[in-house]
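FAQ: What does the model actually see?

It sees only this:
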Amino acid sequence: MNEPCAQAWGAELEGETMEHRTDAPKVIPIEERGYAHPESLVSTEWVAAHLDDPKVRLVESDEDVLLYEIGHIPGAVKIDWVADLNDPVTRDYIDAARFEKLLRSLGIDEDTTIVFYGDNNNWWAAYAFWVFRLFGVKNLKLMDGGRARWEQEGRPMTTEVPSYPEGNIRIVGRDDEAIRAFRDDVFAHIAARKPLVDVRSPEEYRGERLHMPAYPNEGALRGGHIPGARNVPWARAVDPETHTFLPADKLRAIYEEEQGLRRDDDVVVYCRIGERSSHTWFVLTELLGFERVRNYDGSWTEWGNLVRAPIEK
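And it is asked to produce this:
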């Protein structure tokens, strides 16, 4: 944790009033960035103004599953991407009944606006957004910049875990066709020469590593990438100084001009276990308005272990 963030957390935990920093790097307002669906993003200012709004539920989802306990935005609840969203036995997500029970336990109603945020530039927050969309939950948003931007601005954090009355949201099922791809879909995609985007690091793409640099080199028996996939690391979509998404013109320069993707393409994105690629899915779908983007959440942990699956390096 950097020193300003540690001081900010300490002040909040001691109950002191905090003023958010005005010297944080400035960002272009969301509505001025040219996104296809700007309503899918909210700013830290918007969140700060809605901390006491009963119709808004803040949901933190992090790679570091212990991060919430050491400090989170006041009123936020936690989604643990392992314990809460994944079935404990089958390699799949929980069913609709368990998902409904989870959301109701967090006080989420039919008309609740759900705002996700998290660490690593909203890496796992985008994953939670994508999983919620699989279950047909509509009123979803990401807090632009995630935890890093909130901390950068010196906004309040707390360790207090909120409790809400049981919600009334209804979940009728899960649609795995529209935005999710399975291995057979990927085989068909290869045969049809449709665009695949590998959002992992260049080292993983080239087969030099099985995981990101600085992470344990594990997860698959083989390295490389799916034949025909182009490599666009997920974090290129984020401004490293502010942790917010790049404006639409800069995103189009990456995905459309540099990579040749078209908004009417049938695109499949993948990474190692589907979390980084859900971030790129969000960029292509929500920010650039691509019409057909699916996340292959089996990703390289499945493909790199799959007998006779073709691999390029």
